[in-house]
Specification:
With about 160 residues, the protein is of the alpha+beta class. It has helices at about 1-20, 35-50, 80-95, 100-105, 145-160, and strands at about 55-60, 65-70, 125-130, 130-140.
Amino acid sequence: MTLRRTGTFSLVSLTLLASSLAPAQTLATRKALTLAAAKQIAAAAEAEAVKNKWNVVIAIVDEGGHLIYLQRMDETQVASTDIAPMKARTAATFKRPSKVFEDRAKSDGVNVLGLPGVLPSEGGLPIMVDGKVIGAIGVSGVLSSQDGIIAKAGVDAAANLK
């Protein structure tokens, strides 16, 4: 009989302990890019491109890599309309700059070329809020290092959004 009470007491104790460890909330609140924010980010990137007389395509994607906004500046190569979103998708879904994969591919990490959804070329940067990736920008049309400069201007502008 004492053994049964001890077992019941242990079961009740474990149940209470488990319920106290359960999260108080089951749904998270998170920031998300809006079309208006995407346009502001793209405008800042475009201003950097215009300042340098670089014609590019600018793509903004959400955290899942889905296109929110794309703009192609006049006289930009048509292929960049595919490349810019791929750079942005790489940065969003892998939560790191696309240049990371370019650097690895240049050293000895050719295995990155086989990763699904990776475009190993500078110009894709994640957009972060409160330490979380909420989307990414991808730029294509000039040298990849120049694409990266333009993308950074967009990310810098995103830091000022509310």
